[in-house]
Amino acid sequence: MQDMPSYALWLMAAMAFMGYALGSVPFGLILTNLAGAGDLRKIGSGNIGATNVLRTGRKDLAAATLALDAAKGFLAVLIAWVMTPPDFAANITAVTALAVVVGHCFPIFLGFKGGKGVAAGLGAMLALSPITGLLGCAAWLGVAKLTRISSAGALAAFVVMPVVMLALYGFSFHTSPKPMAALLIGLLVLARHHANITRLLNGTEPRVARKPK
């Protein structure tokens, strides 16, 4: 990253804190509690994301969770972009994008036991680089539909997006921090899917049931 004056570093810290706090909001848990669907942490995988919300049998809650988790990722980066002087926008929005995904994965409100970062990460990437985010969404939906494995789509998206970022912004992390943010977010999401990756390699990862004709 380029040399930054002290006020810009303080602003970066403030935006990172904002991103982390916003990312920590567990929309899946909140929605299922409000709807009387039970404690999401005691259902299915115990994850707070949309996929586990779907295991409650409430497709509407799962869709709302997906939308809200993506929205918090997008909003955090958007706020950072609006609040930041143009000279430092790339640096501060990149840090904020990473912070919001970290917040979702390790939320302070839930003892640092959170989700896997897929929806929040996609939302953050859409704000950080719309082309990258859209291609990530396309990869996610395409692979998930082809394989009928939700985690395979998510993993594909977070492998594709750092590559797209590198193609768009080059390989110099010093002058463009966005590829580094995409890479770190991708590695975090992949790490959070370690159990899914093991099951995929073993051929035991569950598939989404086909709709009856």
Structure overview:
The protein has 213 residues and is mostly helical. It has ten helices and no strands. α6 (118-128) packs antiparallel against α9. It is globular.
**Overall geometric form:** globular
Number of helices: 10
Main sheet: strands, sense, barrel? none
Alpha-beta content class: mainly alpha
Mean pLDDT: 90
How many β-strand stretches? 0
What is the helix content?
A: 55-70%
The termini sit apart by 54 Å
Quick synopsis:
It contains ten helices and no strands. With 213 residues, it is mainly alpha-helical.
Topology:
Layout: H1 6-23, H2 27-34, H3 50-54, H4 59-83, H5 89-105, H6 118-128, H7 130-147, H8 150-169, H9 178-192, H10 194-202
Entry keywords:
single chain; mainly alpha
